[in-house]
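To close the section, here is one more complete example, presented without commentary so you can practise reading it yourself. The ligand is NDP.
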Amino acid sequence: MTVPAITMNNGLTIPQLGFGVFQITPQETTEATRTALQVGYRHIDTAEMYQNEQGVGDAVRASDLDRADVFITSKLSNAAHEPNQARAAFESTLQKLGVGYVDLFLIHWPLPTLYGGDYVSTWKTLIAFYREGRARSIGVSNFQIPHLERLAAETEVVPAVNQIEAHPYFANNAVRAYGRAHGIVTEAWSPIAQGKVLDDPVLRRIAEAVGKTTAQVTLRWHIQRGDVVFPKSTREARMRENFALFDFTLDDAQMAAINGLDRGEGGRTGAHPDTFAYMPA
Ligand code: NDP
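Output:
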C-alpha cells in the first residue's frame, strides 16, 4: 500500500497518512509504535504534552528502518512558549526521541489568552530551529485565521502545516480554505472524532456501498479532501484497517453526502483554540 506524499511550502514532503499517539500511555507507546511501523506507517505524530516521545523514539530506533524513512512530528508544550523555555523544551524533545532532528515541529496551541497573547515570539523561536536544520519543517496547531494572519504580518516564514480538529461533524472549512490559499497544509486531528462519527447512518450507507468500514470511508474522505491524517489505535487490526485507504475511492455524490454532515461549531469535540488555556503541571 503506497501512501501519497504531500509537498509542503518548503519543498519537503509529508506522508499523507500517519499514526497518532495521543492518549497512548508511555508504557504502551513503544509497542504501539513498533506495531504501526510493522503495519507500514512511516509517519508518527507525537507531542511533548503526550509524555510519550521516548516510546516513539525507542520504537523507531529498535526498528531496522533508517531515520530518514520515518517522518516524526512533535509539538511544543503549552508550558514552554517563552523563547528560552521553548529552546530547552525542544532540546528535551530531541533527546527523548533520540534523534538529531524532527521532521516537523509545531506550536501545539496558540494560547492567545496566555503569555500576553504573544505566540509570535514563540514562532520566531521555531524559525530558529528550522534555520538550524534541527526541525526540517515547522508549523502550528489549532491556529485560527487571525492567528495565522498575525504570523504572516509579523514574520517571514509561513507555517508548513496547521494541525486542526476536522472530521465529518466539524469540517473546519474556513480555516482549511485559508491554509489552501496561503500554502499551508491542513492536518486533521481526531479524524474519526475519536469514534463519534462511526455509527452515522450516512457513513454506514456509503461504507456498505463501497465494501469498507465507516472508519475507512471517513479517513478516505479526508484523503480526498487533500488533508493529512494520523488516526490513533492501540489495536493492530484497527491500525491495518486505518491504513487500507488506497484501493478504493469515493465518488462525488459520496463526498458531497459526507460534506453534508458538517454541524459547524456544534460539531466541535475538542477545546476552542481562542479560549483553550490548559497548562501542564
Ligand atoms: P481519532 O479520531 O484518531 O480516534 C481514536 C479513537 O478511535 C480511539 O479511541 C481508537 O480506539 C478508536 N479507533 C481508531 N480506529 C478505529 C477503527 N478503525 N474503528 C473503531 N474505532 C477506532 O482520535 P485522536 O484524538 O487520537 O486523533 C488522532 C491523532 O491526532 C492523535 O493521536 C494526535 O496525534 C492528533 N491530535 C492532535 C491534537 C492537537 O491538539 N494537535 C488533538 C487531538 C489529537 P482504540 O485505540 O481502542 O482502537
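Once you have examined the C-alpha cells, check your reading against these statements. DSSP finds ten helices and ten strands in the chain. The CA atoms of residues 229 and 272 lie 20 Å apart.
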